[in-house]
């Protein structure tokens, strides 16, 4: 597997261009290309879970000079999340995207986005990370506006402007880092910064990064683009954006940079925890009373990412016991994976509902459980998971995060976590009431269940929600522990420089 | 398989089996469910005979910090609760088979939910681990929500309310469990003994207390019970809020206030619980008096009666605790019976509106008789079981004396109002004049009659031979929990017993004499029904129906205006915490929403200000 590591970006990147060419011959071909590529990537990603950590020097250039790719528990975890959710979204798209024109272009942008996200996750080079970040971001700006309606374009434009500001901040930060240390290699940066310590310049860089990557992760107060952008995109893209993109570009980068490059720090920990708690509360409150199916889901993404960030912040605290830090990280990572599963499930089911009913307005929906039992049940399972109802997966990840917060002495943040869990329950029960139960409006009396290509991913994701809840032990052992250890062991990360 | 696991796993598996039955096969699904629940009942009888048993298995540990144990413990108290849970399960499933017999809309998944509820309830009762208990509690909430969602018109709003209120109480319990884990280092119920002298102890108790009373349906977290009453089919009402949730809620209340925290008589928390109890008794019964819908009326009584249990258990006086727990059992029996009767009316007549009903006694003699028995029981009329348990609570309060007399008065007053309310029910449903369109109404089928008759007989047995359940089920559990020895307990409770046999004989004689006189009157035809004649017009009897709904209008209309206004508000839900918090929360959300005005420059300024603040903090605090 080691020699194939760059293929995680190379394959989708190549396929994105090839797809445009081949689709000139036949439009049908792009469905197969996208399916094949994401399928292969998923298989590769799952196999990566069983690899020991390694580094890969691109073009055999030695580490500090050439670009280095790093594979460890965290990047493997992220690869699995990205590739599997992509595969399911592609399967969903084959039917769903018939509502739009220019399917081949859609798939090319989709593949470009995957290439970008995979690149961010596997790279060990700061500038390389920025390049991939931009590839994924630009593809996502285009995808948000893919419907080319008034609202879509407005949302896309807002996203583009705010995302551009964030990218500029990130680039600015990288430039500062390069000026101080003279290197862009991430393990090397970690070593250099160990010597330099937290100077004012480094502090400014941290501020730029928290803002830049935080905007991609939609932390309050940098969240405002998300409730417009995520609902405007086609449903499989909303699922990718909320389920994967904000994690790969935002949360993953924050984790990687804060843990492995800057190292544990009291102040950074306090800031991230505070912003995380703020996101949790504000996102949750705003989700109540939304009338648009996808908009409600978008706000809830902000809120749920807050949980992950609070957990990350706790683990970043230098004074925290190691057991607490690893508990927090396991909880945070588990919630990240869970959120990828149930949020993409929910966005896809919103897509299935829109596909059949033609609306996302909660007031115009109702009683769909009877007409679309599979979609309805999957949507119900997704919303119960995210609301933290046992035995589904969301319960366990929230439990672990809250346990860690209390054990770490953060009673207030812990209680906020419980309260926001209740708020989440409120709006998802509201969602279920408006969409799944109650009286079927007369205008929808002759709708049918969604087609197989759309129902299949929903069933897989719903099964995952249940399986990851009940089989928590397996998930922890194979996915979470290696990832958490990779983050907590800064020295090992610095040593990749020698290994590469 | 371990004998304790059996009663949890078997219904869960059988529930999963019935899940795959299509709509048309609801009868076989029902029969499978019935067999499973009867089998479960037999198992619980065996477990009850066994007395004590334990099961322990660590499911997972997380880095030496946290450990989740699947710990079950069977002992005197929960073995009888378990027994009755299984009994109600079997009865309800039998009844449901009759109830859904011709209904094409109800899928087999109904039985799945009932069986899963049984499984989760068994696990909750047996659990010796607070987290396991909490998980079962939440699963029960979820299943309740799903069952309510199978109901008729308006079910979605009711289901939302149920899940929100119970979700709130579950969140409170969650917080309580975590605090206990953090401060006391263990989640094992049997090894916990927490003093309520400390602030954390009090907070933890209040949080768990919230979970218990919300499930049982005491004020102020009661409003989900009346909300679900109308749209939810009667078997579900009879199963969950009427019987199972009472057993579970009061079981938990007893566990926390007697075992984990050992609340003492006269302490602040005890007083708080008694106020909650007495308040629930009084206010809920007042609202119940003026209800127009049979199921809604019953649901307010289901709230009101919880008051006696909370009052009894919360007082900390052994006799009153015995009374409270016995009342839990009795209430489950008669309230289940009442809802089953309501179910017959609902099914056969098609409405539970008290204005519409009337004169059904002749058409439904069995239902009428069983309803009289359970209605008398709930009103606390001797010699039925409700009287005995209320009597024990009164005795306990009397023993304590002092200001406890206030609670006693409230409790007795509540009981009187309950009787008044059921006089209205009996009149408006079974007596009075029948509307002609209901002339063809039939009596309940066999499958529906059996559970009703069974429950009515239990009401009589537990009333006349009250020593039997008291000594078999309840006194041993309380004696173990309060640290009072069995013998002393027996002596203390004996003072609360009354001798029912002589009184029963006297009452029976009185009734027979009355019947003879009545029968004698009938043969002589003392009374002849004639149409009413007013001002030269002969009015049809139909127009002269007197529905029972006007019986207690004085409560709402003719009293002091301040009181009536308050009362109206209360009935329309202004005093419902759910609505109050809903309004407060919504106004906060509105403020936040108005900030998100969709203008790019606003959003951009947030980003810039955010970056500025971050820079300031990071550059000048480092």
Structure, described:
Chain A is an all-alpha fold. Chain A is built from 20 helices and 2 strands. Chain A is 76% helix and 2% strand. In chain A, helix 1 runs antiparallel to helix 2 (29-48), helix 6 crosses helix 9 and helix 15 packs parallel to helix 18 (452-470). Chain A starts with 6 loop residues before the first helix and ends with a helix. Chain B has helices spanning 3-18, 26-50, 76-99, 109-126, 130-148, 155-184, 199-216, 224-229, 234-260, 268-289, 294-315, 318-349, 365-378, 385-400, 404-429, 446-464, 467-482, 486-494, 500-524, 553-556, 561-572, 577-595, 600-620, and strands at residues 53-62, 66-74, 532-534, 537-539. The chains are: A mainly alpha (500), B mainly alpha (622). Chains A and B meet through helix 6, helix 8, helix 11, helix 13 and helix 16 of A and strand 1, helix 5, helix 6, helix 22 and helix 23 of B.
Chains forming the largest contact:
A-B, 70 and 56 residues
What form of chain A results from the Cα inertia axes? globular
Strand order of the largest sheet of chain B: 1-2
Low-confidence stretches of chain A: none
Structural class of chain A: mainly alpha
Note the gap between the termini of chain A: 16 Å
Nearest-integer average pLDDT of chain B: 81
The oligomeric status of these chains comes to: heterodimer
Query: How many domains would you count in the coordinates of chain B?
Result: 3
Beta-strand content bin of chain B: under 5%
Q: Evaluate the radius of gyration of chain A.
A: 21 Å
Number of helices of chain B: 23
Total beta strands of chain B:
4
User: Which sequence of strands runs across the widest sheet of chain A?
Assistant: 1-2
How many H/I helices of chain A?
Answer: 20
Q: How much strand content do the residues of chain A show?
A: under 5%
Number of strands of chain A: 2
Number of domains of chain A: 1
Low-confidence stretches of chain B: none
User: For the CA atoms, what is the radius of gyration of chain B?
Assistant: 26 Å
Report helical residue fraction of chain A.
over 70%
